[in-house]
UniProtKB/TrEMBL annotation:
Protein name as annotated: D-amino acid aminotransferase
Keyword Transferase annotated: yes
Lineage of source species: Bacteria, Pseudomonadati, Pseudomonadota, Betaproteobacteria, Rhodocyclales
MF GO annotations: transaminase activity
Annotated family: Belongs to the class-IV pyridoxal-phosphate-dependent aminotransferase family.
Length: 283
């Protein structure tokens, strides 16, 4: 595949960065993953705005304007073969000649983008849902930033995979935060619930779309703190992300969620999401 590195488009296997890059040494950078349907980036502006928030919050000068970012993303899409892609974009604080925690005086960020075929959930996963485990959320207190320092998220996701599951649902101090790499929605008595945005979770682009769709279609919903016990007693649990879209979680820690099958509200939301995606793609 073709990637982008600091101004150049080149085959991924030819791309090289310095081992002194602060992304490599410190996980010092931000990133985005942008889904592309029929060669059209979905919610591109929102992803670029979120990247801007991340970079501003970590004091990393944004190397590009929104228009420049959009142009680079579109070029990566055009140069790769797939109709549906998942574009990965990362910015690190760049390479210094010494390893210092403090920022180098001259900051020259490293910009890297690559693309792959977009893999959304399979028909089997949509029909059966997926299994999840739970864990204590031991991440830092700036989970609202999309930084490349993802060791905690990797360890937490691996806990799920090691048990043959797809996701780890995180609880902090008895409350739901999110998944290791997704936001979480539940349904109780026909009402869709999800936690409010805070420093404890990533403000998901898909989370926003799902809330917009609930609003538009008049689905009863509440954005509020959710107790761990409410999640365990939920009729439905879904995970949402740019690549998983809206995916039912049908077992949690080995116990069935509700009926143990994807529920009616989640099926409806998945259908609304697909419709919305298709409208945007045609428009
Ligand atoms: N939370 C975390 C921790 C994530 O890594 C992701 C996926 N990037 C999400 C939520 C979902 O965000 P989005 O809908 O923007 O993909």
């Amino acid at each position: 595949s073709i990637c982008y590195l600091d101004g150049q488009y080149l085959p991924l296997e030819q791309a090289r960065v310095s081992p002194m890059d602060r992304g490599f040494l410190f996980g010092d950078g931000g990133y985005e993953v942008i889904p592309v349907y029929s060669r059209r980036p979905f919610r591109l502006e929102e992803h670029i705005v979120r990247l801007g928030h991340t970079l501003a919050a970590i004091g990393l000068p944004d190397p590009h304007s929104a228009a420049e970012w959009a142009a680079i993303v579109r070029e990566i899409v055009a140069r790769n073969d797939w109709q549906d892609q998942s574009v990965y974009l990362q910015v690190t604080r760049g390479a210094d000649d010494k390893r210092n925690h403090a920022f180098p005086a001259e900051v020259r960020p490293t910009v890297f983008l690559m693309s792959d075929a977009l893999v959304t959930p399979s028909v089997a996963q949509l029909e059966s849902g997926v299994a999840a485990v739970s864990a204590a959320d031991f991440r830092w207190l700036r989970c609202d930033l999309k930084t490349i320092a993802l060791l905690a998220n990797c360890l937490l996701r691996q806990q799920a995979v090691a048990q043959g599951c797809a996701e780890t649902i995180l609880f902090r101090d008895g409350f739901l935060t999110e998944g290791a790499a997704s936001n979480i929605f539940i349904v109780r008595d026909g009402v869709m619930l999800t936690p409010p945005k805070s420093h404890l979770m990533l403000p998901g682009i898909t989370y926003d779309v799902v809330l917009e769709l609930a609003q538009r279609h008049g689905l009863a919903h509440e954005v509020r703190e959710i107790l761990e016990d409410e999640v365990r007693a939920a009729d439905e649990i879904w995970m949402t992300s740019s690549t998983k879209e809206v995916l039912a979680i049908t077992t949690l820690d080995g116990r069935p969620v509700g009926s143990g099958r994807p529920g009616p509200v989640g099926r409806q939301m998945h259908a609304w999401y697909q419709d919305f995606k298709n409208t945007v793609m045609r428009g």
